């Protein structure tokens, strides 16, 4: 609130130039030499994006860590696994939570790629065609903490919508995974399934039905992926078929871009609150482990005895109604291969998470040093 655009200021860049001129004299008039609003705006977007992606990166790591903890905590609680929306095979609450943790780990990789592409300095590219001054673009890129100079002056402008769309796409993947999580929560908390309970603090009532406890927060998390798709489409639709160079159309991608970042931050934070307040209903889950879930297990027992799988499949198919009862806990212990119910690789995932935290700390420290350096420079 201390530095505001006022009537007569052309834009923020002119405002800065006028401010510097008023405070330090003629040196302020030189700031635009070798620069255009085109590369200044692009630089501001890159710095803003870097700052916001670091926040999202950290929040996402926290959410993944919570999901891994829940996967470990509930690794031995049986839960029916579904395909085609029908009961399929024995599963566990642990593998369910763990699936979202691993999916979000993949999203971190996408986020890092988007971060690296954004981490290029366009300053000095001018209006998109360079300038007839001997600019040290690398010096400025290093001073501002960018990993590299974005070399081709024309590509700096051509990449604007491209890199923004890649960032929004990486954010969309995060929201997409959370939407699936929210859909599962809504399904598995219905009275028909009743596999989980959600803390009442996250439930809302009905204006007409006194008994209702609606998990509205999950519904709103589920819907956000559609809004995110809209933001991505807005960016694509705005920049598609534009000729090379700066086009004022770029201005219209800023709103969906900024809103996609803000929405992603909220979705991640609310998701962490939601998953921390979910508890499996163990008795109901065990009761749901009905005999048909074990048909593949019986077939595999025959396979262990040397029966070809297709023959074992047919034998079990002919005797499904006579399937013997099984102890779900014992069956879960038998799936020992990597990623099976008895081998969710939580330690390996935590180790991977530690690597991402180190990368985040490194990039955050670099960013903070630059902010302090710039502040000290202008002091």
List the helices and strands and how they pair.
Elements: H1 12-24, H2 37-73, E1 78-83, E2 86-92, H3 93-118, E3 120-121, H4 137-143, E4 148-149, H5 153-188, E5 196-198, H6 216-239, H7 254-276, E6 278-280, H8 282-287, H9 295-304, H10 309-317, H11 328-334, H12 346-378
Parallel strand pairs: 3-4
Antiparallel strand pairs: 1-2, 5-6
Helix pairs in contact: 2-3, 2-7, 2-12, 3-5, 3-12, 5-6, 5-7, 6-7, 9-10
The number of helices is 12
Task: Report helical residue fraction.
Answer: 55-70%
Mean pLDDT over the full residue set:
93
Give unreliable regions as ranges: none
Strand order of the largest sheet: 1-2
Q: Which radius of gyration do the C-alpha atoms yield?
A: 27 Å
Intertermini distance:
19 Å
Any overview of this molecule?
This protein has 379 residues and is mostly helical. 61% of the residues lie in helices and 6% in strands. It is built from twelve helices and six strands. The strands form three sheets. Strands 1-2 form a two-stranded antiparallel sheet. A two-stranded parallel ribbon has the order 3-4. A two-stranded antiparallel ribbon has the order 5-6. β3, α4 (137-143) and β4 form a beta-alpha-beta unit. α2 (37-73) runs antiparallel to α12 (346-378). The longest helix has 37 residues, at 37-73. It is elongated. The mean pLDDT is 93.
